[in-house]
Amino acid sequence: xxxxxxxxxxxxxxxxxxxxxxxxxxxxxxxxxxxxxxxxxxxxxxxxxxxxxxxxxxxxxxxxxxxxxxxxxxxxxxxxxxxxxxxxxxxxxxxxxxxxxxxxxxxxxxxxxxxxxxxxxxxxxxxxxxxxxxxxxxxxxxxxxxxxxxxxxxxxxxxxxxxxxxxxxxxxxxxxxxxxxxxxxxxxxxxxxxxxxxxxxxxxxxxxxxxxxxxxxxxxxxxxxxxxxxxxxxxxxxxxxxxxxxx
Length: 247
Description:
The chain is an alpha+beta fold. It contains 7 helices and 11 strands.
């Protein structure tokens, strides 16, 4: 396995409310663990929410007695939701905070992942496929046929999400299990990338690079070139590479 993780404030923001965690080594009964979180809320609240969520997922996964990756991830995200919500209710300055979460682990050529919000996980091989589903107002409108995907890209309510970790007492977590094939490359990212760079362009930019670090930096550069309106965070994973790189 080879991985590379990167986060960038972008051009328009003065602070970074994203949080990433990338660990190729075991975390409790998980063989590895990767997390991307995009926080939201008032001053400092977003970065607190994303950090608390990621740290809780790591802590919970490390202590879990379960041997089922899907169960570990789901319950870890639920625990993160409870902790973020509790912190928000205990501090008026953090009252509206929440965060997206994509958490993934790989074992025996199987990808297991949990998702809340509009951060995404893609698999790239001969093409690019979005595995997660956005929990956003405009994505619900697309699925209902009210607007097209192109209209959704520039919709004024694009940033309104319908699910977040910490925004309610309970959270519905989307769970996925995907069989991996040789040549697959996994991308976890926040919407600071996907709002600035279209999926097809992400695929083209990645395929133009031979080194995983170069792929990651090229994507960040493209998001900033497109406007850099938000924080940009991503993790790239090559699950079949024998070279291990610590990021």
